[in-house]
Design a protein that fits this description.
The chain is of the alpha+beta class and 376 residues long. It folds into three domains: 102 residues, Immunoglobulins (Immunoglobulin-like), CATH 2.60.40.10; 116 residues; 128 residues, 3-Layer(aba) Sandwich (Glutaredoxin), CATH 3.40.30. The chain has a five-stranded mixed beta sheet, with helices on one face. Strand 5 and strand 6 form a beta hairpin. Helix 2 packs antiparallel against helix 3 and helix 7 runs parallel beside helix 10. The longest helix has 32 residues. It starts with 23 loop residues before the first strand and ends with a helix.
Length: 376
């Protein structure tokens, strides 16, 4: 019998081990209320589960497995897909003892002989308490909303938010107490990577020597790197930061640079001829240009078109009488990637020194900002 990955809902981590002459690991124990059931020890190879050992429990629920572990690794001990628990073992764990009740294996087990597994057990005991409280509060909150008990709903909402903060504080304390614990993989799954990125990086750095080359550790590292890159792009357009240079050809093939427009307030307008919301917004942009063109106001249109003819025709049809550039690379536009443009129309307002004033200004918001700048 093979146990699917759904047996590992709390964590998914593995270390690929190639130890010469590894120590023999013994896992033994007693599972009460499990007469005639089979028990399985599952390992992981590149993230895929593999049953290493299986046995039928003795009449008193006792069992014993012997196998060779190498570097630290995650394992699942399972009675079924729905009834399992996680172990963290390495070659030093030569005598691991587990006792539990089969009716609630994960909630009742105790373990000795593996400090990493004990850390994970401690974490799961505490997280269960927090999660049960949150579930209870959410149920009560939904009930009060359905019955129109607004005062009670507000009170329960405050309690729920307070419980969530306490849960997050506990997880962060757990991680920071010993960033090198492998149980931190489970703690991180309950945190938000964007909000708590520094704690993800702390765990990554603490475990890098022990886990580098591991499929799941490397995957975590890639996710962290991706988030760092995303935040870097977001921070590029924070008000007060210098807008990244844009240097692309206009319809005549001449390279136009954003820096050529220094001394003006510049609205960088990402758009395309095929973008219906952009074409709907264009009359408003034209109106703003005509209203403020005698001030130090300019627009740089950056098109995500692929067809030069359609791009040029749209400029003429919509009367867009300002500088336009495009590399005709659609969403792969160098400027769109540099500015992390995920949808259009997308605008960035830059001041005369080339620093970002605001982003995503359209319609009334754009007019209000320009009125504020030029008529204050």
């Amino acid at each position: 019998m093979r146990i699917k990955t759904s047996l590992l809902p709390l964590i998914a981590a593995v270390l690929i081990s190639c130890e010469s002459e590894p120590e023999v690991n013994t896992i033994s124990g007693k599972i009460s209320n499990a007469e005639d059931q089979s028990i399985y020890l599952i390992g992981y190879n590149n993230g895929m589960p593999d049953t290493l050992r299986n046995a039928t429990l003795d009449p008193d629920g006792s069992f014993k497995f012997e196998f060779a572990a190498g570097r630290p690794d995650f394992y699942t001990l399972a009675l079924s897909e729905e009834n399992s628990l996680i172990l963290i073992l390495d070659s030093s764990n030569t005598n691991v003892q587990i006792d539990a009740d089969a009716e609630k294996l994960r909630e009742t087990y105790s373990i000795t002989g593996s400090k990493e597994s004990e850390h994970l057990r401690d974490l799961l005991v505490s997280t269960t308490v927090f999660e049960n409280e949150l579930d209870s509060l959410m149920t009560a909150l939904r009930t009060s909303a359905a019955t129109g008990e607004n005062e009670k709903r507000v009170e329960l909402g405050n309690s729920y938010n307070r419980a969530r903060r306490e849960y997050r504080d506990y997880l962060i304390d757990f991680v920071n107490n010993d960033p090198g614990k492998m149980a931190n993989f489970t703690a991180l799954q309950r945190l938000d990577m964007k909000e708590d990125l520094k704690h993800f990086k702390t765990v990554r750095d603490a475990l890098s020597m022990k886990l580098q080359g591991n499929y799941f550790f490397d995957n975590l590292s890639e996710q962290i790197a991706s988030m760092e890159n995303q935040l870097r792009k977001e921070n590029l357009l924070k008000p007060g930061t210098e807008a990244p240079e844009i240097a692309l050809p206009n319809p005549e093939g001449e390279i136009i640079r954003l820096s050529d427009l220094r001394g003006n307030y510049v609205l960088i307008d990402f758009w395309a001829s095929w973008c219906k919301p952009c074409r709907i917004e264009n009359p408003n942009v034209v109106r703003m240009y005509n209203k403020f063109e005698d001030e130090n106001f300019e627009i740089l249109g950056v098109s995500l078109d692929r067809s030069k003819d359609k791009w040029v025709n749209a400029i003429a049809q919509d009367n867009l009488d300002w500088p336009h550039v495009s590399d005709l690379k659609f969403w792969q536009s160098a400027a769109a990637e540099l500015y992390n443009v995920k949808s259009i129309p997308f605008t960035v307002l830059v001041d005369p020194e080339g620093k970002v004033v605001a982003t995503k200004l359209r319609g009334a918001a754009l007019e209000q900002k320009l009125e504020e700048i030029f008529n204050s």
